Amino acid sequence: MLIFSILWFCFISGCVGCVIGLALAIRFQHLAYPHTSHSTPEPEAGPNRDEIKALLRSLVEINSQVDAQVGRHTDRISEITESMDQSEQSEPLAQTAKLLVAANQQLQIDLVQTRFELAHQRELVDSFKQESNTDALTKLMNRRAFDSELREQLEKVATTEAKVSLLFVDIDYFKNINDIHGHLNGDQVLSTVAECLKSSLYTGASAFRYGGEEFAVILPGSDAARAVQAAEHVRRTIERHRHMVDGQELTVTVSIGIAEALPTDTCAALIQRSDQALFTAKNSGRNRCGVLESVPVNASAIIGSAVVSC
Q1: Which residues are within 8 A (CB) of 189 and not within 5 positions of it... i.e. 6 or more apart?
Q2: DSSP of 200-235, one letter per residue?
Q3: What amino acid positions are annotated as catalytic residues?
Q4: Quick check: 96 and 28 in contact, CB under 8 A?
Q5: Greatest extent of the chain over all pairs of C-alpha atoms, in Å
Q6: Residue 304 confidence class, pLDDT cut points 50, 70, 90
Q7: Which residues contact 310 (CB under 8 A, 6 or more apart)?
Q8: Element (H or E) spanning 255, and its range?
Q9: Kind and range of the H or E element at 247?
């Protein structure tokens, strides 16, 4: 049972170390992964410095509790061992065995309590991690999460020849919405568009708020042709939605830039091509999709004049 207790202590100590490491990783994630240059992102919501400090203090206290519990247990075992050395009678030995069992049981009780405390702290760390990757207004994943996911997907393209495409979705004339209806209504439009965007994507696709009125979508497994179809579905969904502003129905449209990743692409290169496709869509009248890559005839036929090849 003593061996079991020692192993249990090692497990708890390892868990504490892992949770502390994860908390530190979340706190300094923005330093290790700077934003890809494209536009200046808005400040992102997430756990503040005081919350992180409080969490780390709590984890350190838990680690100290484990050390103290095992220290007390070790002292108690030493006392019992000395008692055994001083006695050769069977009755004291039986009593010593009982004391050993009791000491181990107490250690197990202490470590179980620590386990529950550690599980609670892990939940807090997971919650902080979720907050650090989520846009507060739209509840989509934020720019930090986008940078990380895009890097991961491009690694797959480079090593496995997987397909992935990127969409940039920009709300048309959004400045007019803010100027005419106010920024609070503008925020409501952003939230509604985000909901439409998320609901219109196929399983496995990921939507992000890139900054301001611009969103990004990563489409794993999609070449340019499939990305065009997905983009057109997004565009139509947003256009057909009843956007209510000040009690009135407002038509909101988006322009979308599409780019398929190449095995040699960096994040910056793929973002630049998608941005160029978005620029083409905007200059061609808005409320349409722009794509730089050549698209098969059958894909173009499906969405008709919405595609702008350049």
Answers
A1: 171, 174, 177, 243, 245, 250, 252
A2: TSPTT-EEEEEETTEEEEEEET--HHHHHHHHHHHH
A3: 213
A4: no
A5: 99
A6: very low
A7: 276, 277, 280, 290, 291, 292
A8: strand 254-260
A9: none
- pTM for the whole thing? 0.63
Which two tokens mark 235?
């565009």
49-85 helix and 2-27 helix, angle to the nearest 10 degrees: 160
Asked whether 307 and 224 are in contact (CB, 8 A), the reply is: no
| Per-residue tokens: 84 | 């055994």
Q: Tokens in use for 106?
A: 């107490």
Q: Which residues are bridge partners to 206 per DSSP?
A: 218
| Tens-place pLDDT, residues 36-58 | 444 444 545 555 666 666 666 66
To the nearest 10 degrees (0 to 180), the angle between helices 2-27 and 90-132 is 20
> Do residues 288 and 266 make contact, with C-beta atoms less than 8 angstroms apart?
no
Residue 278 CA: distances (Å) to CA of 51, 165, 200, 215: 39, 14, 19, 11
For 189-225, write each residue's pLDDT tens digit: 999 999 999 999 999 999 999 999 999 999 999 999 9
Spatial contact of 224 and 165, defined as CB atoms under 8 Å apart: yes
